[in-house]
Amino acid sequence: MVSPPHEAMHRIFQHDPGLFSRVSRFLGVDIPTPVKATALPTDLTETNPVERRVDTLLRLETADQGPFLLAVEAQGKKHPDKPASWAYYTAYLWTKYRLPTALLVVCQDHSTARWAQQPVTCGPPQLPTLTLQPLVAGPHNMPVITDPEEARADLVLASLAAITHAAEPDVDAILKALSTALRDAPVDIAKPLVEFTAQGLAKRPAKNLWRNLVAVDLSFYKSYLAEEVRDEVRAQVRDEVRDEVRDEVRDEARAESRAEDILFILEQRGLDISEGVRSRVTNCTDPELLRRWLARAVTAPKAEEVFEDV
Hints:
The protein has helices at 4-15, 19-24, 82-97, 110-116, 148-153, 155-164, 171-182, 187-201, 206-216, 224-268, 275-283, 287-297, and strands spanning 34-39, 56-62, 66-74, 101-106, 120-122, 130-132, 135-137. It has twelve helices and seven strands.
């Protein structure tokens, strides 16, 4: 089953194909900014019944170096079959489109990133017929953007930084910077980035912070995420009010019961109960005070002396 982080890690490049060029400088390569980008079909299935799909496939055109293909794979954990699949993707795409093909693997943890960036060869050691060398973006090389101004300069990169650092200690600072930067962004720009970031965080603890930031800092933004937080707040308020009302009703019932017990004891002892005494007992709502009166009602020589210790 495809997870939200998986979708966020590759679909953000569909949203902004130029992001790859800006990310490349953190990967140790220099990819020109594309002048045109086209999303291509991700189905790489051949006529045989084996189905193969790449996560995101883009055709990027540059002014100086011409067009090339970018396959983006989101990888949540190590998988022994993946390198062979990646080699198939790149070889197939190169054969089908006759264009240089780059493979970018996006990860969210250091262990998976180290595994993904290891070169894999096809063939005996002395005959490495085909060598796969993916580019890998993850918490080990993506920038930690904690300055709102830096985040504002490239909102999409800041969102990717949050996604790739979702399990890192710096993620809270990244999210705060991103939410601050998004305050001034038009809704049509902020909306997809809020959703990508939320998907990328999945069920990690930082998701709660992001939901709260969206609900407070981006109160203008009407999304399922913001509405979800507001619904939870409303539910919490309802629960608190219900608990408060329940406690009040319980206290009132307890006070009424003790008041009745006090008057009953006084009556059973044959003491004269004035209207003042009766009114003071029945109008009291303090259960602890009534408890003390109840104790004195057992021995007080007169009904009025029930209150003397108060």
